[in-house]
What does this fold into?
Amino acid sequence: MNQDRRDRLRDAAIAVLADAGGRGLTHRAVDAAAGVPTGTAKNYFPTRDALLRAVAERCLEQYRAVAASLAGAGPGPSDARELAALLAGLLRNVAGPGRARTLAYLELQTEATRRPWLAGLLDPIAASDFAAYGHLLRTAGLPAGPRNARALTLALHGALPHLLAGAPDSLAAAGLDDLDAFTRGLLAAADHPEEPTR
It folds into this structure.
């Protein structure tokens, strides 16, 4: 199979899922969005489940590429200031160039509530964020126990729907109208040792 065409179809499927939601994701819609002859997407992804799997895999590839580019080639953020800038960059990507990918990913999560196999595919993606943000906290010299990693990860995940909706009052209420201040605040809240569980 032609890998370039496969990637083009996967990118088109992300765009369709982001624009039209789960009900709008059809082989015909993906063909139209990719500008290829009718039936092409079905040749590459014969079933709707195969199409959903392809979107999930492409979203993961793109997310990892963005995270890697923001982290750079070095060892990672060396302090809270650098980590706050990295996290703000990730959130800006969600609201900007990564908007379609993030919308598609949230649509996939909704689909996963009815498709256990898709939940299984997405689970390692979401679960890896907890370890990744814990690692970033450690690299930046901040307390990085499980509770702090969970709090940071869930706060960032919880910000996504607000950023995508872009409603100004909600953004202001959540502090997301200033992403640099938002991420600095998250890290300030995380900058204390965790008490041992009883």
